[in-house]
Structure prediction request, 399 residues.
Amino acid sequence: MVRHKWTQACCVFLFMVNAVTPVLAEEPDVSTPRTVIYEDNQLNQIVVPSVPAAAPAMAVGAESAVLMDVTTGDVLIDKQAHKKKPPASTTKMMTAILGLELGRPDEIVTVSPKAAAVGEATLHLDPGEKIPLYELITGALVRSGNDACVAIAEQIAGTEENFVRMMNRKALTLGAENTNFVNTNGLPNKNHYSTAYDLALIARYGLQNQAFSSITRQKETEIHFLEPDVLMNLRNTNKLLWNYPFADGVKTGTTNAAGKCLVASATKDGRQLVTVVLNAPNRFGDAQKLLEWGFGETENVKLGQAGQVVGEFPLAGVKPLSAFLEAPLEVSIETSDKGKLKTKIVWERGPDLPISAGERLGRYEVWLGDKKLKNVPLVSESEVLSPPKTWSFSKFLRQ
Prediction:
């Protein structure tokens, strides 16, 4: 018979909920190529982003903040976004990502004594309990269970220490170069740090995982233990899910060292943004303000599709070669910056032949003033072999 899980006794659980928050408590919560620059003046109608406006960022109380478009990865707001800070339980995003990528949702986890002994915000796991991995990941993201994170790590990597090394490698592959994890849950440690920008990168990556996105958008849910056969009700620590109709994730974090932190995502009219606020006295208010500014004052513009021809590569003595975009090009911009575009085609090789189909010829750059915003490689549309030898008619007559 399924029943709801209580830790020790109902009275103990109620005492823990109403107790004063402990000191470290989480809220339930090479060489340079030869280049020839070609200015393409026919594409000046294309829109590009400007330097992020300072006013909205300075209007929030968070010590560090960033606003990023999930599709493009472009930063729209930056307030000390690269400053290293304690990330608290926003750490659990990476724990969940690896759990989802490296484990099977239905594999059974047996809780170890070490995992059960983890304190602060927990699922109140007991040694020997059995629970599916997916349920543990849900508990880590929704209820911010510190103990669940250790159990996930031990299941995937054998030990938490091994798992943490995997977390750091994954962070580097995502471009989170100013992040270092020493545990799976974000409990304070002087060597455990990240930045608002890095956390946005991690969240952006996670939101592309359907399971991760589905879990973090839930206001309330329940998880099912197998041994004993009990249910646990969970309420998401992210209050923005109730207060902002477009919110759909991601994760809170709170310790005395980190202050109140939030990674939040929202989707409006098909566009998704993610914001991170660290050490923010009014984290939910700050996050909503940044998201609303992003939806109201910025937009995404597609500049080109993969395979679209945007230039002609000059060749000596033969017809120019069409060059196309190797990847789609889309930028997130402030709407007020339309019409301020400069574009450049930069050729990175000489006109010598042969040229292979698909060979990189140069890059297509997008500029705003003296700031380069983005570039995409330009590749050859077709193969061009060495030109045929020309015969001298007078030489032929003398033979």
User: Anything to note?
Assistant: The chain is about 25% helix and 25% strand.
